[in-house]
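Module 6 notes. Inverse folding takes a fixed backbone as the condition and produces residue identities as the prediction. Think of it as a translation problem where the source language is geometry and the target language is the twenty amino acids. Below is one complete input and output pair. Work through it position by position during the lab.
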């Protein structure tokens, strides 16, 4: 698992590289453009380039769609046909999480029944490495259902994902996932 900080550094380097490359193209065009051409003279070529680019982009999008469709971050268990192994009642309050249990088995389907008592909160499940694995809104007067299967035993972290007042950043709770026998 790549640490979160290293991944953000990588994104920064990629972003800076892309910005530099785009800037270089603009400078190159500005320095090499000489003379003037009338619109009618460049029109056919421009239209040709445009439809060619459209075709390329369409093909790229179709390729990306087909390749990534199977790995959407919504598992098929979002609407399970099987009954969950365990139901956990979750209540968000300013500023804590109240769970009917703080220990759940790994590898089993868990149903979180999530609500709130005061204001809207965001129920987010983070892996022991700090990666967001699943989340659902916690709303007063309404129960949201989050079906989730913890991949490995360990200490996961529940965080609030919606700003809910002064102590929002400290609204977190460890959740122990144990090896089911
Ligand atoms: Cu909150």
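Target side of the pair, the amino acids:
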């Amino acid at each position: 698992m790549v640490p979160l900080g290293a991944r953000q550094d990588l994104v920064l380097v990629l972003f800076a590289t892309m910005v530099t490359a785009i800037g270089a193209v603009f400078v190159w065009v500005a320095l090499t453009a000489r003379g003037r051409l009338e619109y009618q003279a460049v029109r056919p070529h421009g239209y040709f380039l445009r439809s060619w680019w459209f075709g390329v982009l369409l093909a790229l999008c179709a390729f990306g769609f087909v390749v990534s469709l199977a790995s959407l971050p919504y598992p098929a268990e979002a609407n399970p046909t099987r009954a969950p192994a365990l139901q956990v009642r979750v209540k968000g309050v300013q500023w804590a999480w109240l769970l009917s249990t703080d220990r759940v088995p790994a590898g089993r389907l868990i149903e979180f029944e999530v609500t709130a008592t005061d204001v809207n909160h965001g129920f987010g499940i983070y892996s022991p490495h700090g990666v967001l694995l699943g989340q659902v809104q916690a709303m007063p007067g309404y129960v949201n259902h989050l079906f989730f299967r913890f991949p490995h035993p360990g200490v996961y972290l529940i965080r609030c994902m919606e700003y809910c007042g002064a102590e929002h950043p400290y609204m977190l709770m460890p959740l122990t996932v144990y090896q089911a026998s």
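Reference fact for the lab report: The helical segments are 4-32, 39-68.
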